From TrEMBL:
Gene: carA
Family (UniProt): Belongs to the CarA family.
GO terms, biological process: 'de novo' pyrimidine nucleobase biosynthetic process; 'de novo' UMP biosynthetic process; glutamine metabolic process; L-arginine biosynthetic process
Pathway entry: Pyrimidine metabolism; UMP biosynthesis via de novo pathway; (S)-dihydroorotate from bicarbonate: step 1/3; Amino-acid biosynthesis; L-arginine biosynthesis; carbamoyl phosphate from bicarbonate: step 1/1
Protein name per Swiss-Prot or TrEMBL: Carbamoyl phosphate synthase small chain
Gene Ontology molecular function: any one: glutaminase activity
Native source species: Halobacillus litoralis
Biological role stated in the UniProt entry: Small subunit of the glutamine-dependent carbamoyl phosphate synthetase (CPSase). CPSase catalyzes the formation of carbamoyl phosphate from the ammonia moiety of glutamine, carbonate, and phosphate donated by ATP, constituting the first step of 2 biosynthetic pathways, one leading to arginine and/or urea and the other to pyrimidine nucleotides. The small subunit (glutamine amidotransferase) binds and cleaves glutamine to supply the large subunit with the substrate ammonia.
Active site: 245 (nucleophile), 330, 332
Residue numbers spanned by region CPSase: 1-169
Top EC group: ligase
Binding positions (L-glutamine): 44, 218, 220, 246, 249, 287, 289-290
Carbamoyl-phosphate synthase small subunit N-terminal domain: residues covered: 1-130
Subunit structure: Composed of two chains; the small (or glutamine) chain promotes the hydrolysis of glutamine to ammonia, which is used by the large (or ammonia) chain to synthesize carbamoyl phosphate. Tetramer of heterodimers (alpha,beta)4.
């Protein structure tokens, strides 16, 4: 037996699977019907216990192709039912075996609908996955005295730069907790990608002579990485920049905007986003607990380009003077709809247009001289 204990004293008793270790983190929920392997391996879930609202998880097993990172940073998996005997031609092991190998605890057999309603009503909160041996009073004392993690980006970012070679545009990808799906989109387009740690300075990035800079997704509060905000503030005026999820929030902060924690966030593969410029609505994959404050952008050089149809939160930004833009959702999906994968092509188009402008300016300068 295993228990999930919320900081408000609510207890859910169920069956344990995966690792036997205890775990304390922020409990959140994901509304996707499929894609549990990508969710579990998404670095943006670092420090969190993830509740799957779909009642059956693990039915198509774990395969070699759908990982978003090598070493998952998720702290726990919460499901109504986990499948012990998956059936799929790509399946190589069970969810239980995978979680055991990665030392990730899980709990099944609980009312995930009730848990989700609690989170929606009261917001995300601390929780503990534990055995039934400890008293509730003792568990709550441990929960109260244990702070949530604040260094998630440091935990999941690459330690050293590395290169994914290509013959196309040269992209520097700042890794705040990058999903492999972002790399896949760039390699599809034959880009030469240099992945660098989250604290890489603007000067170090410029020495790499990139055509553009990609700011990846990542976990936690964007204000916990002030060094990245300073770097982005310098890069914005020097080269094209594209931000996704945490990268989107960091662009807002670098330009003078503000961010705040959401009540329970957006996590799922079915989030509708409206682009008022084109009138189109996109279904998007999302995973974030913080959002850009719309009113904080009024005195900045950023324009809101897209918004959520669920709560009207900011989903897209564009800089008024530089080739810089961002989205709160995941255009690389993994899992989720691929409605917005064209944004990677838009980024490369902006790079091309910026280079053309620079050449024209240089040509005009040489004529004047």
């Amino acid at each position: 037996m295993r228990q999930l204990v919320l900081e408000d004293g609510t207890v859910f008793a169920g069956e344990g699977f995966g690792s036997d270790r205890e775990s304390i983190g922020e409990v959140v929920f994901n509304t996707g019907m499929t894609g549990y392997q990508e969710v579990i391996s998404d670095p943006s879930y670092c420090g969190q216990l993830v509740t799957f609202t779909y009642p059956l998880v693990g039915n198509y097993g774990i395969n070699r192709d759908d990982f978003e990172t090598v070493n998952p940073a998720i702290l726990g998996v919460i499901v109504k039912e986990h499948c012990e005997h998956p059936s799929n031609f790509r399946s190589e092991e069970t969810l239980d075996a995978f979680l055991k190998a990665k030392n990730i605890p899980g709990i099944s057999g609980i009312d995930t609908r009730k848990l989700t309603k609690i989170i929606r009503q009261h917001g995300t909160m601390k929780a503990m996955l534990t055995t039934t041996d400890r008293s509730l009073e003792e568990t709550l004392k441990i929960l109260e005295s244990t702070p949530l993690q604040r260094d998630q980006v440091k935990q999941v970012s690459t330690v050293k730069p590395y290169v994914v070679p290509g013959r196309g545009k040269r992209i520097v990808l700042m890794d705040f907790g990058m999903k492999h799906g972002i790399l896949r989109e760039f390699t599809k387009r034959h880009c030469h990608v240099t992945v660098v740690p989250y604290h890489t300075s603007a000067e170090e990035i410029e020495r790499l002579k990139p055509d553009g800079v990609m700011l990846s997704n990542g976990p936690g509060d964007p204000k916990d990485v002030p060094e990245a905000i300073q770097t982005i503030r310098q890069l914005i005026t020097r080269m094209p920049v594209f931000g996704i999820c945490l990268g989107h929030q960091l662009i807002a902060l670098a330009c003078g905007g503000d961010t705040s924690k959401m009540k329970f966030g957006h996590r799922g593969a079915n989030q509708p986003v409206k682009d008022p410029g084109t009138g189109r609505t996109y279904m998007t994959s999302q995973n974030h607990g913080y959002a850009v404050d719309r009113h904080s952008l009024e005195q900045t050089n950023l324009t809101v380009t897209q918004f959520s149809l669920n709560d009207e939160s900011v989903e897209g930004l564009n800089h008024n003077h530089h080739p810089v833009f961002s989205v709160q959702y995941h255009p690389e999906s993994s899992p989720g709809p691929e409605d917005t994968a064209h944004l990677f092509d838009e980024f490369l188009t902006r790079i091309k247009n910026d280079q053309t402008t620079l050449k024209e300016d240089a040509s005009c300068l040489s004529v004047q001289i």
